[in-house]
Amino acid sequence: MATLVEAHPYSRNQALLHWCCERGMHLTAYSPLGSPDSAALTKRAEDAPSPLREPAVAEVAAALGKSPAQILIRWAVQRGTSVLPKSVKPERIRSNLDVFDWEIPADMYDKLSKLPYQQRMVDGSFWINPAGPYKTLQDLWDE
What sequence ranges are listed for the domain NADP-dependent oxidoreductase (predicted)? Predict the structure, then answer.
């Protein structure tokens, strides 16, 4: 059994990951890159915080000779989750798959795992509709 949730260093869902592990469930991360192409869809500002533009991610990427996307994907895989990075470009798909023969060193991994900014990038506002079942974000999320 698996559950699918937004997960990246800005929205770690650590309690849910732990809960799933205790029950033998697997967690799959959607938007592991922070959903960079959804700013217009979610009405987020183009300069809103993004894991792909996070300085700590850039620092780790430079140190390891990898792209920020590869660092975010590898971080997710290394913590035991599978990922669903969206891409239609063959070169990005190849790059996204090049994350299995290396690891992020523990000190760098820990730094990414403790980023203070915690906010989901896909807030669900595109599902809100006065005529639908989700009239407010509170209707959608049970937080």
Answer: 8-114
Q: What distance in Å separates the CA atoms of residue 143 and residue 138, rounded to the nearest whole number?
A: 8
Contact (Cβ atoms closer than 8 angstroms) between residue 83 and residue 76: yes
How far apart are the C-alpha atoms of 54 and 69, rounded to whole Å?
A: 11
Instruction: Pull the structure tokens for residue 82.
Output: 């599978």
In the Cβ-directed half-sphere of 132, how many Cα atoms lie within 13 Å? 11
Tell me the C-alpha distance between 79 and 137, whole Å.
Answer: 29
CA 125 from chain centre, in angstroms, equals 18
Tally Cβ neighbours within 10 Å of residue 121.
21
Check residue 36 and give its pLDDT. 62
Q: Please, what's the b/e burial string for 57-90 (b: 16 or more CB within 10 A of its CB; e: otherwise)?
A: beebbeebebbbbbbbbbbbbbbebebebeeeee
Instruction: Tell me how far apart the alpha carbons of residues 64 and 33 are, in angstroms, rounded to a whole number.
Output: 18
Task: Please check whether residue 33 is in contact with residue 72, taking contact to mean a CB–CB distance below 8 angstroms.
Answer: yes
Largest CA distance in the chain: 50
